[in-house]
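Practice problem: predict the structure.
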Amino acid sequence: MNATDAEAEAFVATVEAAPAKINLALHVTGRRADGYHLIDSAVTFTRFGDRVGVEEAPIDGFSTIGPYAHLIPAGADNLVLRARDLLRGLASSACPPVRIMLDKNLPPASGIGGGSSDAAATLRALDRHWQLDLGETRLRDAALSLGADLPMCLAARPLRASGIGERLEPVNAMPALDMVLVNPGVEVATPAVFAALARRDCAPLPALPRSLSRTSLLDWLALTRNDLEAAATTIAPAIGEALAALEEAGAAFARMSGSGATCFGLFEDAAAAARAAKAISAAHPGWFVTATQTTPSP
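Answer:
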């Protein structure tokens, strides 16, 4: 159910951010016998995203607020509730009932890890709330059962992900990037995108520059791809319109994230990103558009 405005004002006691996950580059390098695709991806996270909060309750409960609250699935398809149940199964002590609130600001099924980030935030919040102290490694290994994006969303820092997404290598000295996110209001099913791939054996990412700056990163990105972009655009041509809108608004670099349909554009500074977001929103009032900044390496 949707929470009231009063509930939103009194957001619950234990709160975790669920930031948008951005695939700056994504190469598809193979496919396992079980059908899972192998990737090599440079990933970062934004300051904008969802929030998950938990508090004690007489019985388990779940409520949502935010612009995309009405699109959150119920039952077995709800990753937040699956994360709660997974953590209970890992615990060696009793885990009392909780009420979980999700503040949903990211469009679902949009290539920026919204559901996975929500589930990861739920795991972190409940691990603290129930004082389980399971540790990063155990949480990460268990979370993989919820989806390949979960380990990287648990880390929520600049990293390089390989395998099916479970092999993580932190990226040090990644700078903050001023960015605009654009989703043209279409959902793209990830399995359909992978099924439409022309190649599944592409080369891995080139080595990152030893000294990372906005300039060196832009030069490096020019050598990389998102191997899912072309396939996704054949399914949802509006992705091409979103990329064109970012470029027309002055983005130094624009690309689709994940399996789409959200695209990102990198801008000179926060003011330029804000101007671009305003212009794109005015031209396309039905789109999801926001200016944000990525979180740098710790």
